[in-house]
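input
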Amino acid sequence: GTSEKAPELKPSAATTGLNAVLLNIQQPISSLGISHDGKRIAVGTGLYRAPGSVQLWDVAKREKIWQGEPFKFGVPAVAFSHDEKRIAASNFSDSFLRLYDIENGKQIKEIRGHHRNIAGIAFSSNGKYFATASLDKDIKLWDTSTNREVKTFSGHGDYVSSIAISPDSKH
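output
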């Protein structure tokens, strides 16, 4: 059989699935989130000590839909809410989680609770919770309807840099 050579990707190219999608993103990419239908990509740009922003891209058109206000430092985590009405993002400038309206990119909420940068975000598939992982060595579980902390999981020996919630939302 014939084998097709995979397209060469530049460092500034975002990819999704097995089919590469090249997006002309002008800053280093530090995080990606893909919508459930695969039609949009949330991008966190910037680096630990370099400016960044949250961006929403249309995959089919390969166009930026919106770009949020810039941060002094990069965006290590982005995630779509289960209902896809919001994008959650963190940045290396502070320890807050920000929620953005997916339609216009406006910040709608700033959530405080961690003491160091948030490095990972995950939403449950049942839409009831989201979790954050932080460099403060804690994982926090939050209620999506109130944006209030439900529980803190402490005692990790080092930074917690990523988080996932099982597909059945039980773990």
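quick obs: The first strand starts at residue 29 and ends at 34.
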